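User: Can you predict the 3D structure for this chain?
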Amino acid sequence: MKTGRVIWLELDGDQCDIGLEFHATCAKPSVLNLDQIVVDPAWALRIPAKLAARRLVLPFAQHGGFVHVACADPGDASAIQSVQRFLRQPLRAERADPESLQRAIGRMFGGDSRQGGPLVIQRGDQTATALDLDAEDAVSACDTILRAAILRGASDIHFDPMADDIRLRFRIDGLLEDVRRISTTLFAGVAGRLKVMAGMDIAEKRSPQDGRFRHRYTSEGLTIDIRAATLPTKHGERITLRLLGLQVDTLTLNKLGMRPSHLRTMVSALDQPHGLVLLTGPTGCGKTTTLYAAIRHLIHRERLNVVTIEDPVEYDMPGVAQVEVDSADKVSFTKALRSLIRHDPDVVMIGEIRDYETAEVALRAALTGHLVFSTLHTNSAAGAITRLVDLGVEERYLISATLRLVVAQRLVRRLCSHLPPAVHPDRGRCAVPWTSGGRGAMCVRAGRLLVLRGPRLHRPCRRV
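Assistant: Here is the predicted structure, written as structure tokens:
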């Protein structure tokens, strides 16, 4: 039996049209598998690692006014009370598979979870938990923030100075989430630590700076490349960190979430011996990631000479010559493009077409027998042609002769497979609303899904 409610009602003479919203029933899984659940480190790291390992408990999400705690034994009142002392929030115990729970605790706290690990800091007679950042020194606070961001799958870390404190936020699946507020005293040390790691001038606070460094996440064996940028604001210095994963072993086209028809169209364009393939979309929609997946598809299938020109190099890919554009303009996109043509490349990837010179060289390289990949900042696939013309490409025959595929790419939030979507009938069409992403207790598979639009340019469509 289904339950529902009336959404709209319309009377037309003797006829009455009613729109209903049905709520399908979905039984909660009796035992949670922590290997399939995205654990929120903002809650998991609030308890000591020693408590989590000894009592087999792990807070993993907040939903519906409760913090959900994965437990091997939900009836262990003593363990729940121990977690309550640290969280100070209403709790709801969820039975979890003990083996997957142990693995999740190991991933969250590293290899030192039995002894408490580096996430429990002793200060005299005080004990500070992992996210009690105000009780940590700058080095420990930086490590804790970076670990929490990596575990949460964040793409960016934002330190936003406010009037009285600093707001710490993570960008997760394209949306900014508030993590907590930290004091200005602690932020001064954190900012200095990040500047030293990124090779910036720690004394300069009135001018924007850029830098980068690598951070190794030991428990998972991951190496993360981090770009840092500072900007002076009214209330202090703002710092933004961009996290770039260097491992591309699992970066393949069939794992990006494309529809089968879109995947076939993409692979068909990659099979061409020469031509230009453009990816369009807003900043942060995954254009470069898709290009790397395309290159990985090509080099695994046959031996090719692949050269990329990027600003900066976001992924380290073995077997590919990667050129990084110099900020001092010693190596620009145009200079590198004109030089690499002499290195007999089969495939060329350009991080972004920004000006006329880059567009012209890319088009002529595609015309002379090279397969060229690049990105362009437009909102639609059709707008790529207009954008090339606006950049100054007057030889329109170059566009019609070289352009093989234009893809408009977006990232959308994935619906949770454990929650039933509500259906809203609306005059013959049904809209499926977004769920709350990964914030719900049972929204364990939430993430990002790739949406591609833009078919191949057939011969009649190449007339510009």
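Residues 112-132, 422-450, 453-464 have pLDDT under 50 and may be disordered. The longest helix spans residues 138-152.
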